[in-house]
Specification:
With about 450 residues, this protein is α/β, with parallel strands linked by helices. It has helices at about 1-10, 15, 35-45, 45-50, 65-70, 80-90, 115-120, 140-145, 160-175, 205-210, 225-230, 240-245, 255-260, 265-285, 290-295, 305-315, 340-355, 365-375, 375-390, 425-430, 440-450, and strands at about 25-30, 55-60, 75-80, 100-105, 105, 110-115, 155, 180, 185-190, 195-200, 215-220, 235-240, 250-255, 315-320, 320-325, 330. The protein contains 21 helices and 16 strands.
């Protein structure tokens, strides 16, 4: 039935092209990160205006404030964390039903440690500049902290953020326990059994917090890793592309009620942002320098254009004065980045289960059902069909909707620890980890033994 409905939807694009937007004056929220660029580009390049939309974009103090303002209707939509939308749809941390029909980007994050910590790592254990560095190099310093009665402190941006899961994944892959959540016990600190403590800090405050000595490391999006490197405060050890390959990072988040009330507006919004993503990756990132200047403006990211240009143009500094080419550090369109593949939502759910935010084991079917609730491809497909009919993009720019699978095709996604992720078998995936909560299958076996 779903495929039949999509066929009818795609076949009536010409009718919907004349559809009137239910709402034309829109307020979109974002957090000051380079991957808010599609919103700025769509506004500055007139893509919103082409769709008859009059849009204002507004920076938000942090991810919680942004989510609250989308939920209560102060914002129509927002640049949101993929994990944030997935969690809300699953009833974690919010009762709001959030959903998305558009991925804004892949990658864009990194894990950085303080210069003082890095200097304690023996030279023989350090990887070459630009290569992924295992968190195992922190073991000696972690032990020294413990012997002194101190605890190493790391920062992340939100409990349900990609950054939180990436930081935990990286640490666990290096044999360091990042801690569990225990919501059924009223403990949402995420610090049970932790060998180091992870706390929440807004992205723009990360470098200053490291400078003050409060944090010894963090996982955050750009430009805040590069700012820490530029100031000589920290060294980047791994990017999220190196951690897990192609994975949805930010999405266009809306409430289910808003999407239902404004279907035509939603499609027009997606069309404008699809064009923005295409523009950002067009001709091998030819427009990225211009985009960096654009988002350097105070009402967007408001950071130094030189620092913004590093990640945006693919010349990334892992350590001060040591640059490495990272062409795919930010991806906005290629590799079918914008399509809401269910696999991405399922991976986030596995991490929520792995670290205890999802308290109870679930069967494999549950993971897919949750993914289908939050990632809604139909509006995306309608928007793509209209852009193709209008000659603004080509059919070859998009995944084949008739054969689209759970997983993004194209660039192979690999994990830093060599683990294999099959989205059709999330519990089998969870069973691969030595550090983490039990999968459904393991939980059932334990129950049977008892």
């Amino acid at each position: 039935m779903r495929r039949i409905a999509l066929t009818l939807l795609l076949g009536t694009c010409c009718l919907s092209q004349a559809a009137v937007a239910e709402k034309t004056d829109l307020r979109l929220g974002f957090v000051k990160l380079t991957d808010m660029a599609p919103l700025a580009v769509a506004l500055e390049q007139g893509f919103f205006e082409d769709e008859g939309l009059f849009v204002s974009v507004e920076a938000q103090a942090n991810w919680k404030v942004l989510q609250d303002r989308v939920t209560d209707g102060q914002l129509d939509a927002a640049h949101m964390l993929a994990g944030q939308v997935v969690a809300a749809s699953a009833g974690l941390g919010s009762q709001a039903r959030l959903q998305t029909s558009l991925v804004l980007d892949l990658h864009g994050n990194a894990c950085t440690v303080s210069k003082a910590i890095w200097e304690q790592v023996p030279a023989a254990q350090k990887s070459a500049t630009g290569q992924a560095q295992s968190a195992s190099v922190l073991q000696t310093t972690l032990k020294a902290y413990a012997e002194q009665g101190k605890t190493m402190q790391f920062g992340t941006v939100f409990p349900y953020s990609s950054h939180n899961y990436e930081l935990r994944y990286w640490l666990a892959a290096g044999g360091i326990h990042p801690g569990f959540y225990a919501p059924e016990q009223g403990d949402n600190s995420g610090q049970l059994q932790a060998q180091l403590l992870i706390s929440v800090t807004p992205p723009p405050q990360m470098p200053a917090t490291m400078e003050a000595g409060t944090l010894q490391g963090f996982c955050v999006g750009e430009p805040w890793n590069q700012q820490a490197v530029q100031k000589g405060l920290g060294v980047v050890l791994v990017t999220n592309e190196q951690l897990h390959g192609t994975m949805a990072e930010k999405v266009l988040g809306v409430t289910a009620d808003w999407a239902k009330a404004n279907p035509n507006t939603h499609i027009k919004l997606i069309k404008a942002l699809l064009r923005a993503g295409y523009w950002l990756d067009q001709n091998n990132n030819a427009n990225r320098a211009a985009a960096a200047k654009m988002i350097a403006q105070p009402h967007y990211v408001g950071a130094d254009v030189g620092i913004l240009s590093r990640s945006m143009t693919g010349t990334f500094e892992f350590e001060q004065g040591k640059a490495s080419q990272q062409q795919d550090f930010n991806v906005f369109f290629r590799y079918h980045a914008t399509y809401p593949f269910y696999a991405d939502a399922i991976w986030y759910l596995t991490q929520m289960r792995r670290w205890g935010q999802i308290a109870n084991a679930q069967d494999d079917a549950w993971y897919l059902q949750q993914a289908q609730q939050v990632f809604q491809p139909e509006p995306y497909q309608q928007a793509a069909a209209e852009l193709i009919a209008e000659g603004k993009l080509k059919a070859t720019d998009f995944v084949d909707f008739k054969t689209a699978s759970l997983t993004r095709p194209g660039k192979e996604s690999s994990f830093i620890d060599g683990k294999t992720f099959d989205p059709s078998q999330p519990n089998a995936y969870l069973q691969q980890f030595a550090i983490g909560q039990q999968s459904a299958a393991t939980a059932k076996m334990s129950t049977a033994k008892n």
